[in-house]
Every structure is written in structure tokens, then in C-alpha cells.
Amino acid sequence: MKIENIIIKNWRSIKDQELQAQDLMVIIGQNNHGKSNLLSSVLFFFGEIKHQDLDFYHGSTELFVELQFGGLDDSDKITFKKYLTSEDKIVVRKSAFLGGSFEYRGYIENPDEEWLQEENASAYTKRELASSLPFHPFLPDSGRITKQNIVDAQASYIEQNREEIEFSFELETTNFLGLKSVAKGIFGEVYFIPAVKEASDDFTSKDSSVFGKMYSDVVELMSEKNNDWKETKEKLGKLFSTLNKNDDDGNENEDRPQQLIDFEEELTNELVSWGAEIDIEVSPPDIESVFKANTQVWVNDGVRTDIKRKGHGLQRALTVALIQVVAKRSMAAAEDEDPENAGNRKVSNSRYFIFEEPELYLHPQAQRSLFDSFVSLSESGSQVILCTHSSGLIDVERYKSIYIATKENNSDETKVKQCTEDLFEGDSKKDFNLSYWINPDRGELFFASKVVLLEGATEKTVLPLLAKELGVFKYEYTLIGCGSKDNIPLYVKLLNKFLIPYVAVYDQDHQAHKGEDAIASADISTQKIEDEIDNNVGTSIILINDIEEELGLPNGSNSKPFVALNHINTEGFTISEPMISKIRDIYDSQA
Description:
The chain has helices spanning 35-46, 74-79, 127-130, 147-161, 199-202, 210-225, 227-241, 258-270, 287-293, 312-335, 364-379, 426-438, 457-470, 488-498, 516-532, 547-551, 561-568, 577-588, and strands at residues 2-11, 14-20, 24-28, 62-70, 90-97, 102-111, 167-171, 189-193, 298-300, 304-306, 351-356, 383-387, 402-406, 415-417, 450-454, 477-481, 502-507, 538-543. The chain has 591 residues and is an alpha/beta fold. Among the domains are: 2-19 and 39-189, no CATH class; 425-588, Rossmann fold (3-Layer(aba) Sandwich). Helix 13 runs parallel beside helix 17, helix 13 crosses helix 18 (577-588) and helix 14 (488-498) runs parallel beside helix 15 (516-532).
């Protein structure tokens, strides 16, 4: 099953936030704006971390994280039957209280009729009263009626008459599944890799480590399919059975070692006065556990050592290798799935991979490779949640996967910005995706305090240089070459949705050599940009008629960035006053 919705209340810097979850969730934002708090709220729900008094927002005494799950398979539907909605979803809340206690509660579709509510079941155990209620056909014909009889009868009646019953969706008053503490892993397997961690911890054979969880799968497969392994287990079982007085059938064991028999008799003789007799019984070991406990991982990169003795880069690369193996296995499992079970949960559907700054110690190419592994994991049925400072782990085409954590207007409260709707379709979607190849670093726009949208490479090359000469350049601004004037509205639409300030800089395109039709076409493109701009988020600046004319390039010169750079670096070049004003507006004005 998968997380579909997240509600967070009073967790650290998050006062009140609701999010729609995706298979891939990339959390970004400036330092100290709450990225890790958003990530840790999910870890808290799954029991991967414990809450502390400092986790409560501004002195509140209660906090909770509430998750809605969908995509339940048949086994899940049985486990969580009580909480299953008519849409086959479940909603569970984990609450914590100042001082240390916590609890899980599930939402139930509670019938409006009191006689159908489970919490009132004990009020109807008298047969005379129970027999007068509509669920009486589902009660035992004789004997004392128990509370459980009433609960079962209520459930049977609801199942047969669901369409005629009015329900309220509300939080149960008792513990989730009736358990005081929910078992870890009941919602699925969680793989968590924090930012600062010994890589060797990921490669231990303990079931809590990433390697250990995968290694357990390997050992399980060996037990099922490797004949030598199965034969060895059988031989070990027979060996240990010869050490006990009786065999598995209760018969006397004639092959028992005499040394054990003598040792038992010596101990028994010393306890004669107590009337006690010693019987030494040897249980066969769990060979899988022994096998895993005695496993070590060594790395040979020219020198064979354990992981701790390698550099941070190689340590992180080994963790990434684990992720990539999981991704490839998950993809293979999805491809090998029986078509008849296509609607059921895939092998990895209940796996949640959670990473804190996975880009640490990785060079840019390795980061891009890592991102492809995350995508593969998310497409194979797992959910991947990560927080990052790297634009290499962002794909603008997957804008629904991006979550921007921010504290606005000097507030200390974290708010999260995301876009859940489809922004592009048809040709506009194709144009937007193709523009990636023109501007492969466009993922930086999500980290910018302001985005400058430009038509092409010449503007992107020249404007920063001129801004530095004028002393107004800002590193926190990101310049995006959109590839053409007609692509600018696509980026404007995206920035509007995420409320990222921007300025769209484009050519008026009314050059003297152009005819009426060309000018009319340029005006149409201009109007599309202006129609898309939200004045609460961004603004525009128009170049007359293009960057070449603004810079005073000779007529007929081409628009290559090098030509423009060479021109502005020639002796005697001066920036025109209108151009100076526009550059200052680009870098100084607030959208």
C-alpha cells in the first residue's frame, strides 16, 4: 500500500500542514526552513524515531501525524478491515503528548444509528433488547449473548446493508487494531538513510540495516531454491537431533554422545538430595540467523579493508549501489509479475525509502545517476521520500514530486508549497519537456529567491556579466534560458503555482526589417506572456527590440553569445541608460 495524503499538526516547526503524497517526493528549501522536519514527521509515524518534548510546536501539548493509505492488497484489506473505507483506503493518526506517551488511532466509517456502533455493543447484550433490533438474525439462537456476539452481528448487518446505512467518518475512541502499541512494520518496510551516518551501519547483517533487509531476502531465496543449502540445513538438523535423549518422534535416541550422557548423570548425582534430575536438551540453531550474523562486507579498491576505512565518497557510493540494486530488483519484480495479479500489490509496494541529503559526497554525475535510481524505485511500486540541496536530484518535468519547505515573512512556521494539478498538455507539455535539453540546469529555479526567465543563451550569458559590472548581481537569483519567447509562459505558469518570484525578460520583436505579419505574430507571443503573469508573484521587462539592439550590436551580426560578449568587452563600449535601468530592475526589483 502507499501513502496518499499527509496531515501534520504541531510537529517541530510545522504548525498545520496537509500534503498530497506522490510516489516520488523531493523536499527542498533553504537552510533552517523545515525540510528535515517534514521528513522526520513521516519517520515519527512509522516509529523510526521517537518524539521528544522539544518536538512540540511553540509549547503545544499534543501533536499528530496522520496518513491516508491507498492501494491496499487483499492481505492489507483483511488486516485493516475495520478501517477500510468504501474507496478501499485507510486513515491512521499517530498522536504524541508532552511528557512522552503516544498512541495510534484509526478512522472508521461509523454508522449514524447508535445500535450499529461498535462502542455501544455492550448495551445490547440482553437477548430481549437485542432481538428487537434489525441485526438479530445474525445472533446465536440460544445461550448468553456476549459483547462479541453483538459486534459480529453489527458487522454482518452493515456488510449486507451498507448502501442503505448513513455513516460518519470519524476517529475511533479506542486504540488502533485494539493494540496499545502498533507493531513496527505493519504499514510496510521502511528504509531510512540519514545524512550523517557510518556507511558500515548500512552494510551490517542486522535486519534493521538496508543491506540486512536485502540480505534476508537473499538467504530466504537460498532456503527455497538452493539444493545444497537445503541439504546442509537438513544435515545440521539431524546432527543436533542426535544430541537429545529422545528423537522428534519421542523414541529413545541410541546415537546420543556418551559424553553428554555422563555429564547429565554427574550433575544429577550431585542433586540427589533435591530429588532433581538433569536433562540437557540441545535446540538446533536458526541457520539463517547464524549465517547472517557471521557475514561481513569487505571492499577491495586496490586495498582490501572494511567499509569504515574507506573515504566518505566511496562509503556513500556503496550506499547508492545498494539503492540501485533494490531499484533494479524492484523493476524486475514488476516486469515478471503475473498479469492475472496485475491489480494486486507488487513485491515492493509497501516499501518506503527515506533519504536525508543523499547527495552528500557524490559528484554531479553520480547525483544524476542516483536520481535515476530513485525514479526507478518509485516507478516499481515503492515510495521514495528525500530532502536535498542539490538541483541534480530534481527533474522539472516531475514538478508534482517537488515540495518546497519555506518560512515566509520572517515567520518561524514551515509551510510547504506543491503543485498537484496538470499544468501542461499536448504540445505545451512536449515543448516544456524539450526545453530541458536547452537548459539542463533548470532545476535550480526551485532553490532561487527569484527567477529570471530569458529567451535564449545570449541573454543568459550577457546579463549576469553586465550586472556584475554594475554591482547589482545576486547569486541567489537563477537565470533560466527558456529556449524561445513562446516557452516563457510555460515557466511562468509553473512559477505561479509554486509562488516563486520571477521576472520575464523578452524581446518586443518590432525590428525595422520585419513585416506587419511578423510583428503581429510577435505581439501575440507577447500577449501570451502578459496574460500568464500573476502580478502577485512576478513581473516582466521588455527589450526593444531584442538584446542585440539594446547592446548596440551592428546590423546583420548574428546573435551568438560569443559575439555579444566580444562586443561588450571591446574598448569604448558603454551600456546605454535604458539598458542600465532594465538590468537594475531585473536584479533589484521585487516581484
